[in-house]
Write a structure and sequence with these properties.
The complex is a heterotrimer.
Chain A: E1 6-11, H1 14-18, H2 21-34, E2 41-46, E3 58-61, E4 65-67, H3 72-85, E5 94-95, E6 102-103, H4 110-113, H5 131-136, H6 141-149, H7 152-162, H8 174-183, E7 190-195, H9 204-211, H10 213-227, E8 231-237, H11 241-256, E9 272-278, H12 287-294, E10 318-322, H13 323-335, H14 337-341, E11 351-358, E12 364-369, H15 374-381, E13 391-396, E14 402-405, H16 415-421, E15 429-434, H17 439-453, H18 459-476, H19 484-498, H20 502-506, H21 509-517, H22 519-527, E16 542-544, H23 554-558, E17 564-565, E18 573-574, H24 584-588, E19 594-596
Parallel strand pairs in A: 1-2, 7-8, 7-10, 8-9, 11-15
Antiparallel strand pairs in A: 1-3, 3-4, 5-6, 11-12, 13-14, 13-15, 16-19, 17-18
Chain B: E1 13-17, H1 21-24, H2 26-37, E2 42-46, H3 52-56, E3 59-61, H4 68-81, H5 87-93, E4 94-95, H6 97-104, H7 109-116, H8 120-132, E5 136-140, H9 142-145, H10 150-163, E6 174-176, H11 183-188, E7 195-196, E8 200-201, H12 205-215, H13 227-235, E9 241-245, H14 249-252, H15 256-264, E10 268-273, E11 285-288, E12 297-300, E13 305-309, H16 322-332, H17 343-353, H18 362-365, E14 370-371, E15 395-396, E16 415-420, H19 436-440, E17 445-448, H20 450-456, E18 463-467, E19 472-479, E20 487-491, E21 519-525
Parallel strand pairs in B: 1-2, 1-5, 2-3, 4-15, 5-6, 9-10, 10-11, 16-20, 17-19
Antiparallel strand pairs in B: 7-8, 12-13, 13-14, 16-21, 17-20, 18-19, 18-21
Helix pairs in contact in B: 4-7, 4-8, 4-10, 7-8, 13-15
Chain C: E1 4-8, E2 11-15, H1 21-27, E3 51-54, E4 57-62, E5 73-75, H2 79-95, H3 110-118, E6 137-138, E7 144-147, H4 156-163, E8 171-173, E9 180-182, H5 199-203, E10 209-211, E11 223-229, E12 238-244, E13 249-254, H6 270-274, E14 289-292, E15 295-298, H7 301-319, E16 324-327, H8 334-347, E17 353-354
Helix pairs in contact in C: 2-3
Classes of the chains: A alpha/beta, B alpha/beta, C alpha+beta.
GO molecular function (chain B): formate dehydrogenase (NAD+) activity; iron-sulfur cluster binding; metal ion binding; molybdopterin cofactor binding; NADH dehydrogenase activity
Organism (chain B): bioreactor metagenome
EC number (chain B): 1.17.1.9
Chain lengths: 597, 526, 359
């Protein structure tokens, strides 16, 4: 194997790739060749680092220098300065948003400081298209250990001991789930990887699939061995073409290496793995709908019981876990259940990956130990609120989750605490909201999503979320009625109690939690026809302060509906009836005479 | 049918030959499809037309029309060659195995392929699937019987089932699907030239004695003429009077030109029907009958289940139930039929002379249908025949050689025409064309293969004329690969465009069934 | 396997293993309302009307899909249950048109029944303009009408098409509030795989699907059902003729999925269900006719029968019985066929009797 004195790792996750990282990589190769460095420096395409906002990201080893927002035209400089002359290119270093300091090393970046990257440990570090790199990082050792040294029962026992719980949202103990499927009679069983990540803004699973696909494969195979399955499906949404391509490559390579297919590693264990592309229906993330979709039927949830462990895909015992859950499995089996269980809280072990978005300075993918507080995530990893505005809430768990407020900032992030507070762990969406976010509007945003994605099968989810959405819409438009709040509360509770699947069962959560913590905002919309955050367009009023207006006519000239009148050098007036609240006047006023509220 | 519908649920292999089941027997079609769609059986479909069932088939065989005996002999050749037949069953239950083996010896898959146009591998696949079973059922209909070699076709089907021992168990059987609601009953009742009720042959003294004992009358010993033969005889003046009940011979009989001539030649024609049909128009006396829904009685279905039919509404005007009319005619001619005054009392008379109906009463039928044979009042009926062997001891193989059809496309008549029904219509259309179905499909559409349509230069919906040596009809084209190149299909429901003006009245020598399924025709754009 | 013992509403009941709560309740004479469940199709769990409470289970359970387990203690009408049912029902009624007066299903509408049972007159959540008007009235074929504005998306039609008709011509389409039951995208029902067996129409609980020719033929309370056998092919499907007691006419033809005597198990085809109007055709013969030259004249039965007897007798006398022929009919009853061959053999002395067995 050739030795290189330096490695250039270029992120090829979806975020960086769309920012032009393939072109950066190509330029690196060209420049290195020009300098005759191509035998000394190896360029590698890796998976995601999590800080997609600052992509394309380039990390140069052995130093671990972290360059952000690298463009093809920057490459010649890095090659010339860093790789040829050994001088770090300061201007391309990542600039820490809190201190505004340039940070040189990966490990020094505060964003990563509080993180505990287990599942993501290979992401951004290895070339996901090369199985050798996975193997060199102890890949497939856990599988070998399981199928040659351990009985299936022992594997399940180890999983139970680890305390791993389903990372897809439900938080059901994984080892226990496996034991149900293992105990189901039948000589044909399936394992399925749920890679139908559909929460708006979530990309945890995508990053794992793109950055470390073999970990998912290995986890599924260990599970298949433990449960007696010989066939598996990865149900991945078609909107993840890169993840699908990486998975295909991984399956191909693993098969070539004898790690997948008939008689894995010469044992009696055989395993076949297929990829099934989903058509982007959110509800297909629900396990029974997902199985219906694999079977070629419309993705609609089926009643449980029977549970998939008894009667799943094609009526056979089936176990479904999500990407992150499967990716945890090899690490647990390799390092031992105790090692995993040592992380986290009493009932929530290990780490959790979150997609941190919203009004924080650092956004991106973060992996934190269970039990970390929300404050640590928001202020230390996230770097606090943009513009140092006031923190208002975090929405955890996507459209099925709920909002938590300032009093919850020191809440430990674990399954029980979040649920008790009215949110859920969910699959890991974490949206930070500040004072400029309207909570009614936020609730409406999520309900719009769930209503649009409702499969339409059961009445409460189909009709109920629509009625709730109608009410929220009229509130944000200033047509709310005082009794609407009780109706929302009642409908929300009934929908939760009567829906067929978790999509409907959790859809009212964003409304119910915002009603609980921000009832005054709802009341302001209804009683005062006012949006305290100034976010609901219909409730906005643009007014011109006659004392400040200089009569320059700029506002009137920029108004698209000609609703501003006034003579030159005299104060102007906005016709509120005609105004469409576009804000063009305010943006163009040279003296700040126009205000909204 | 040797087996009942319930039996379909036990079938591991289902062989359908010459039956467009989903259109002509839709509910049985749904039972078979269910078995297949649940993955519980292997389905073999043999039909020159790519019917809907072909879509579900594991093995689809598109044999040439009229080549069925060769095809089935080919299956048996493979089964015997590969030693897949039920040797023990045959030894114990069937005579004449050596003769069968001898006959099918030359029907190698390659030889059969030459006759049928079917790839040898498909013949082998089908043979293995059928023989493997463990329970295999055969379903067939007019695609088997309406040939001048129909009897041989049926015998060959039976040979196949016997060879593999596929009789007498749930999931097996030789199952002809009867085309009309009570065709089974009409046969059971002795409306055949050679038997009285219960298939007791008039030629046998015992049967005639029984008739004398029960009816108190002597009946003639010579078997009578079949429908087609009677029509011939009428044309020749040998039959002078005809009593037609509920049949529209002008539309359903072959060679309709000849039928008209024959009926016109009669001295006296009585037609008893619910409509003034094309046939009734030629009658001397027309008697108005009650229709379905207006009278009580029983029907016997395709799996020998006797069921009660009931009166729901009154007949219009002076129309009367057929039984009432027949009783009146008989009595006027001196018949001592005073014991029969209602459908139930007539049925009691039936039970007296028909051994297989002896145990059936209206009272029992209230609790559901009974499958004959039901010889005694405490007998539960017989949903599956031959569960305890054959009544005569041993059955016989009747090996048949393939014979070319009576008529085959030639230079002058280069196309092969076949006739049949479509889902939305029934027989002469006298009922369905006067119902909602008539508003849905209003006229005949002639199925033509896309390749033929191209060479004829005709598009979907354009008019073509189809002519045989006997007659000619015109209709709109339906371009579809349901028919193979060289074949056209004509539904025969439409009296204004009678498909049967093309067909020949040449019949099978034994069953007297016309060869409706094969006519040589010419096709032209019109 | 042994029967399952459980308690429903304080009553000890016994049920077959594998039964759902709904099936067990029904078998024991306990009523639980439902809209999506139907004996012809597999349980679906969509309408949420049949929710019940069970001890030791914090959640409401759909009775139609939850298996009854030994020792289960079920309550079918607690205040919590009734409240949930009402909420669900009122959500259905937000969009469902309430013009029952003109609806063909008035009187047999199961939604009406459930609303009546729960004492719900209208939806408290409905706002002006909520009533569904998004679908066109579809009546292009002669068999049935689709009025999807009335559809409650119970999915019975989808399941009966798949499980009984074995076609899968229709399925759910669209999501959220735009969900509807349709044939594959872009094809009208007339050009889809639908074979118009009408089983979907029969199981529709509301007026979304209705028989076109049954319109105006009789209200449900005027109907008397007469069990008989279909008049078409040899399958012998059991059907019910629905007779309007007031007019004495056929209103429509249905089947019965629960009939123990039905060989067809309630299944039907387009002919059996929809092709019965010939019975009422204007073309029906209503009097005997006797030929006079090229035309017919009406005659009395007495005259016609006398003429038949005289002519047949005369031919027999002059030329022997074999100069006569008798065509019987596979469309007629056993009794009639039996008489026909006796007429030929016994009265006319000929075996020239046959029917169209081979046609």
């Amino acid at each position: 194997m050739a030795l290189y004195r330096a490695h250039v790792l270029i992120c090829h996750g979806t975020g960086c790739a769309s920012g032009g990282s393939p072109k950066v990589l190509e330029t690196f190769r060209e420049e290195l060749q020009k300098k005759n460095l191509d035998k000394e420096v190896l360029v590698i395409a890796t998976g995601c680092h999590g800080m997609c906002e600052f992509g394309p990201i380039v990390v140069v080893y052995p130093e671990g220098t972290f360059y952000s927002q690298v463009k093809p035209e920057d490459v010649a400089e890095i090659v010339e300065e860093h790789l040829y002359k050994g001088r770090i290119v300061n201007r391309l270093l990542y600039k820490e948003p809190i201190s505004a300091q340039k940070v040189c090393h990966y490990k020094e970046i505060p964003f990563y400081g509080k993180q505990h990257r287990i599942v993501l440990s290979n992401c951004g570090y290895i070339n996901p298209d090369n199985i050798d790199e996975y193997i060199s990082r102890d890949g497939y050792q856990a599988l070998g250990k399981c199928i040659t040294e351990m009985s299936p029962a022992a594997v399940i026992e180890e999983m139970k001991k680890s305390g791993l719980r389903g990372r897809g949202g439900g938080g059901f103990p994984t080892g226990l789930k496996w034991s149900f499927c293992a105990a189901s009679p039948g000589n044909k069983k399936y394992v399925i990887c749920n890679a139908d990540e559909g929460d708006p803004g979530a990309f945890m699973d995508r990053s794992i699939l793109e950055g470390d696909p073999h970990a998912v494969l290995e986890g599924m195979m260990i599970g298949a061995y433990a449960m007696g399955a010989d066939e598996g499906y990865i149900y991945c949404r078609a909107e993840y073409p890169l993840a699908i391509k990486r998975l295909q490559t991984a399956i191909h390579q693993a098969t070539e290496y004898g790690l997948l297919g008939e008689n894995v590693l010469g044992t009696d264990f055989s395993f076949d793995l297929h990829i099934k592309e989903g058509a982007g229906a959110f509800v297909c993330g629900e396990e029974t709908a997902l199985m219906a979709s694999i079977e070629g039927q419309r993705g609609m949830p089926r009643p449980r019981p029977p549970f998939p462990a008894v009667k799943g895909l094609w009526g056979k015992p089936t176990n479904i876990n999500n990407v992150e859950t499967w990716a945890n499995v090899p690490r647990i089996m390799l390092q031992g259940a105790e090692c995993f269980a040592a992380m986290g809280t009493e009932k929530s072990k290990g780490t959790k990956v979150f997609a941190l978005t919203g009004k924080v300075k650092n956004t991106g993918l973060v992996e934190v130990p269970m039990g970390i507080t929300i404050r640590e995530i928001v202020y230390e990893i996230g770097g606090g609120i943009i513009g140092d505005k006031k923190f208002k809430a975090v929405q955890i768990g996507g459209p099925s989750g709920g909002c938590l407020v300032e009093e919850h900032l020191d809440l430990p992030v674990d399954y029980e605490s979040l649920t008790a507070a009215g949110a859920i762990m969910g699959s890991g969406g974490l949206v930070v909201l500040d004072e400029s976010n309207c909570m009614v509007d936020t609730a409406k945003f999520f309900l719009e999503f769930t209503q649009r994605e409702s499969c339409g099968k059961c009445v409460p989810c189909r009709e109920g979320t629509k009625k709730m959405l109608d009410i929220l819409t009229r509130i944000t438009e200033g047509n709310g009625k005082p009794e609407d709040l009780d109706t929302l509360q009642y409908l929300g509770e009934q929908i939760k109690a009567t829906s067929l699947c978790a999509l409907g069962g959790t859809a009212p959560n964003p409304v119910l939690t915002t009603l609980k913590y921000f009832r005054h905002e709802y009341e302001a919309h209804i009683n005062e026809k006012r949006c305290p955050a100034g976010a609901c367009q219909s409730l906005l009023r643009y007014t011109i302060d006659p004392a400040k207006c200089i009569g320059c006519t700029k506002c009137a000239r920029n108004c698209p509906v000609n609703c501003i009148s006034g003579k030159v050098k005299e104060p102007h007036l906005i016709d509120q009836e005609k105004c469409i609240k576009c804000g063009a006047c305010m943006a163009n006023c040279p003296v700040g005479a126009i205000s909204k509220g | 049918m040797t087996n009942d519908f319930e039996s379909i649920k036990s079938a591991d292999t289902i062989l359908i030959i010459g039956s467009n089941t989903t259109e002509n027997h839709p509910v049985i079609g749904s039972f078979i499809k269910e078995q297949k769609r649940k993955g519980k059986c292997t389905l073999i479909v043999c039909d020159p037309r790519k019917i809907e069932m072909a879509k579900y088939a594991d093995v689809y065989i598109r044999q040439k029309s009229g080549s069925d005996v060769a095809l089935l002999n080919g299956l048996m050749h493979v089964i015997i060659r590969e030693n897949l037949h039920a040797a023990e069953f045959v030894e114990k239950n069937v005579n004449n195995f050596d003769k069968l083996r001898e006959t099918v010896a030359r029907y190698t898959p390659e030889y059969v392929s030459g006759i049928t146009g079917v790839a040898p591998e498909l013949i082998e696949d089908a043979a293995r699937a059928y023989a493997r079973g463990p329970n295999s059922a055969i379903f067939y209909t007019m695609g088997i019987t309406q040939h001048v070699t129909g009897t041989n076709n049926v015998r060959t089907v039976a040979n196949l089932a016997l060879l593999c021992g596929m009789l007498g168990r749930p999931g097996t059987g030789v199952n002809p699907l009867r085309g009309q609601n009570n065709v089974q009953g009409a046969c059971d009742m002795g409306c055949l030239p050679d038997v009285i009720p219960g298939y007791q042959k008039v030629a046998l003294p015992a049967a005639r004695q029984k008739a004398k004992d029960v009816w108190g009358a002597d009946i003639p010993e010579t078997p009578g003429l079949s429908v087609v033969e009677m029509m011939e005889a009428a044309g020749e003046g040998k039959i002078r009077g005809l009593y037609i009940m509920g049949e529209n011979s002008m539309v359903t009989e072959p060679d309709s030109g000849h039928v008209r001539h024959a009926l016109k030649n009669l001295e006296f024609l009585v037609v008893q029907d619910i409509f003034l049909t094309e046939t009734a128009e030629l009658a001397h006396v027309v008697l108005p009958a009650s229709s379905w829904g207006e009278k009580d009685g029983t029907f016997t279905n395709t799996c020998r289940a006797v069921q009660r039919v009931r009166k729901a509404v009154d007949s219009p005007g002076e129309a009367r139930p057929d039984w009432e009319i027949l009783l009146a005619v008989g009595k006027r001619m001196g018949a001592p039929w005073d014991d029969m005054t209602s459908p139930e009392t007539i049925f009691n008379a039936i039970a007296k002379i028909t051994p297989s109906y002896a145990g059936i009463t209206y009272g029992r039928l209230e609790g559901g249908s009974l499958n004959w044979p039901c010889p005694a009042c405490d007998h539960p009926g017989t949903p599956i025949l031959y569960t305890a062997g054959f009544p005569r001891g041993k059955a016989d193989f009747s090996p048949c050689e393939w014979q070319a059809p009576h008529e085959w496309p030639d230079e002058e008549y280069p196309f092969l025409a076949t006739t049949g029904r479509v889902l939305y219509h029934y027989h002469s259309g006298s009922m369905t064309r006067r119902s909602s179905t008539g508003d849905f499909i209003k006229e005949m559409a002639i199925e033509v293969n896309p390749a033929d349509a191209r060479s004829l230069g005709c598009n979907d919906g354009e008019m073509i004329r189809v002519s045989s040596r006997r007659g000619s009809v015109a209709g709109a084209v339906k371009v579809t690969d349901r028919v193979p190149a060289g074949m056209v299909f004509l539904p025969f429901h439409f009296s204004e465009t009678p498909a049967n003006s093309l067909t020949s009245s040449q019949v099978d020598p034994v069953s007297k069934t016309p060869g409706f399924k094969v006519s040589a025709v010419r096709v032209e754009k019109s | 396997m042994d029967a399952i013992q459980a308690i429903i509403n304080g009553k000890e009941i016994s049920a077959e293993p594998g039964m759902t709560i709904l099936q067990a309740a029904k078998a024991n004479g306990i009523h639980i309302p439902t809209l999506c469940d139907h004996p012809a199709v597999s349980p679906f769990g969509a309408c949420r009307i049949c929710l019940v409470e069970a001890e030791k289970n914090p959640k409401l359970l759909p009775a139609c899909t939850t298996p009854l387990t030994p020792g289960m203690v079920v309550f079918t009408n607690t205040p919590k249950v009734i409240e949930a049912r009402k909420a669900v029902l009122e959500l259905i009624l937000v969009r469902h048109p309430l013009n029952c007066f003109s609806c063909p299903s008035n009187g047999k509408c199961e939604l009406q029944d459930v609303a009546y049972e729960l004492g719900v007159k209208e939806s408290s959540y409905a706002d002006p303009g909520d009533t569904n008007t998004s679908h066109e009235y579809e009546d292009a074929n002669p068999f049935y009408v689709r009025d999807l504005n009335k559809c409650i998306l119970c999915g019975r039609c989808v399941r009966v098409c798949e499980e009984q008709a074995q076609y899968h011509a229709i399925d759910f389409q669209g999501r959220g509030i735009r969900t509807s039951i349709q044939p594959p995208v872009g094809s009208p029902i007339e050009l889809s795989d639908c074979v118009f067996c009408g089983q979907c129409v029969q199981v529709c609980p509301v007026g979304a699907l209705s028989e076109k020719t049954a319109l105006g033929m009789g209200r449900p309370w005027d109907i008397e059902k007469v069990k008989t056998v279909c008049s078409y092919c040899g399958v012998g499907c059991e059907v019910e003729i629905n007779v309007n007691r007031k007019t004495g006419k056929i209103a429509n033809v249905t089947t019965n999925y629960s009939s123990p005597t039905a060989l067809n198990k309630g299944r039907s085809c387009v002919k059996g269900r929809f092709a019965w109007q010939f019975v009422n055709s204007e073309d029906r013969l209503t009097t005997p006719l006797i030929r006079e030259g090229d035309t017919f004249r009406k005659a009395s039965w007495d005259e016609a029968l006398s003429l038949v007897a005289e002519k047949l007798g005369s031919i027999k006398e002059r030329h022997g019985g074999d100069a006569l022929g008798f065509f019987s009919s596979a469309r007629c009853t056993n009794e009639e066929n039996y008489l026909m061959q006796r007429l030929a053999r016994e009265v006319m002395g000929t075996n020239n009797v046959d029917h169209c067995a081979h046609l």
